Amino acid sequence: MTTVSCGSRIAPILLCLGLALAGCSDMGKLQQATAPMPTPRPKPAMVQTTPASDREHERILATYGGAYEDPQLEGLISRIVDRLVAVSDRPDQGYKVTILNSGAVNAFALPTGQLYVTRGLIALANDTSELSSVLSHEMAHVLARHAAIREDQARQAAVVTRVVSDMGNDPDLTALALAKTKLTMASFSRTQEFEADGIGVGISAKAKFDPYGASRFLTSMERNAELKAGKVALDPRAQDFLSSHPATPERVQNAAAIAKQYVSLDAKEHDRETYLAAVDNIVYGEDPSEGFVRGRRFLHPKLGFTFQAPENFTLDNTAQAVIGVREGGAQAMRFDVVRVPAQQTLGDYLNSGWMENVDKSATEELTINGFPAASTTASGDPWQFKVYALRVGSDVYRFIFASRQKSTESERNARETVNSFRRLSLEEIQSARPLRIKVITVQPGDTVESLAHRMTGVDRPIERFRVLNGLDARAQVKVRDRVKIVVE
Q: Where is this region: Disordered (predicted)?
């Protein structure tokens, strides 16, 4: 299981832990602009961290699955940032970039110059100018002190974690328990975003990158967000760049208008081939080491189990739980692992007070697919709950189903989901691999549709292929084009 969320449509949750972040990615040492003469190269400017920023860094790593290590990508990003720093107004400002092991499309920065970019964002970009636009945008937030301003605002805003739960007093449950996230990203203001776009596009152009990379990538991110429309964002890592960096068609137009001011510069570099070579084989989506979702099915190869959610449910894998929400939000489920003493029966655990309004008369001991189990019911306006606990070796797994109205369908959904819980076979464990980006060359006869159908593990493959490759609804591929597809 993989991360926690900032809120849900399932039950009222007030959540705000204020960490103020601002911007984008990994790799560290950046150098000051070198003099035009062949003088000795200055030492790279180093990021001056603080105990507070070190703590935030660790929290970010914990929330976003740690750092993603890829020497080729790290080298590419380091070279991009070196060029951006050299032409910026503050070549003495150090930056340290970290690639985060998350499939979300996001980037942010701490006021110290620590930049973060997810591998999901890197996978979505199509050339060096697009990635440089993100990095320069985040550098701009640091240079303009937006990150520091937002951090101050978050502190002043009574940074508290307060959770209103329909379910009781279990701090890990908290209304299907999507709370307790350690990360909240306040949005930048419209003025700050426009200012960062202006500074960022200028830095990119002066570094000889195509200044239109920003407007192209903002468009790709908007289209990527549309693909997610209707899905409940239950995991902070699923929050994308546009969540903390509000974008509108105005912003895309503004970025394009700013780029026009730099057409006289020799700023045209895309370097698509180098970029695609660097992203070839990058992990796409979830990392199976934390368990992963394939459609309605959740698999955890490391722990060796799987189960399947009901029809019309969307699953999200978070750090503390797997969360499922039925289309429309009238039903939801949570799956997690809890500590239960070996000497305590599962029935006693369900009745032990971690959840309020449990109907103890409904509690019963069961066996599910050979595993000792127990179930019970509970209520908490406006939700009705069905809860199961299964003991697997020394672990106890908990299924919590919530429905606005108790019905035959909700009962059946809960029962069928729990009954689908089973051990993975050795063959299934060995075959569980992450999805990856594969860069291929378009051959004669290939079309958007035929290439999209070669992708595995993704929904809406044709739209996904177009977004992943920066192709609009009418664009077609050409023979010898290099394109990205998603494969196992």
A: 32-54
Q: Hey, what are 28's tokens? A: 């560290």
Region of 423 please: left (phi>0), alpha (psi -120 to 50) or beta.
beta
Q: What is the pLDDT of residues 251-277, one digit of tens each?
A: 888 888 888 888 776 767 788 999 999
Rounded to whole angstroms, how far apart are CA atoms 45 and 26? 15
Are the CB atoms for 9 and 80 separated by under 8 Å?
Answer: no
**Is 245 in contact with 188 (CB distance < 8 Å)?**
yes
C-alpha–C-alpha distance, residues 479 and 246, integer Å: 37
**Nearest C-alpha neighbor of 215 from the set 275, 272, 256:** 256
Euclidean distance between CA atoms 122 and 112, whole angstroms: 22
| Beta-strand relationship, 96-100 and 114-118 | parallel
292 backbone dihedrals φ, ψ, rounded to 5°: -150, 160
3-class secondary-structure state, position 224: helix
Dist. CA 221–CA 246, nearest whole Å: 11
Long-range contacts of 296-303 (CB under 8 A, 24+ apart): 298/322, 298/335, 299/424, 299/428, 299/432, 300/1, 300/424, 301/424, 301/428, 301/429, 301/432, 303/395
CA distance 27 to 260: 31
Q: Choose from 53-67, 221-235, 373-387 the range with maximum mean pLDDT.
A: 373-387
- Report yes or no: 3 and 176 within 8 Å, Cβ to Cβ: no
Strand partners, 380: 383
Handedness of CA 232, 323, 161, 156 (dihedral sign): negative
The model's pTM is: 0.70
Residue 129's Cα: distance from chain center in Å?
A: 22
